[in-house]
Fold this protein.
Amino acid sequence: MKEFNWDRTWETGHPLIDSQHKQLMEAINALLQAIYQNAGKDEVKNTLDFLNDYTIKHFFDEERLQKKYNYPDIENHKQYHQAFKKTVRDMIVELINRGITDELAEKVQSSIGDWLVNHIKIQDFKLVAHIKSQDPEALVK
Ligand SMILES: [Fe+2]
């Protein structure tokens, strides 16, 4: 099982964004653990529901910052968020209909975990560079 242990190269420097990304990675690891430890469908559903809720909260907060700092790429970035939220929602439906499958586990790793790491390293780094250019103090912890 692949785990998404926090890596310093994922740190954008923005305190709120980084702390929420850490929480998200922990939620993904909890989901993977529930799957691989055969914790059962209910427990996997609980961890997936938590990931769903926390994703919505995090993206909301990130989009609020984008508005606050007039981020020029906001529409694109929002579309990435929409797509990811749909991936998580579809996964809940898949879990309910088909149960825990190898395919589901594979999707958590690639379409959730790898996707998020990639999104952080490209899109969120771009966003934080913009915030920093507008307000360097925003990055001070
Ligand atoms: Fe983002």
In short: The longest helix spans residues 102-134.
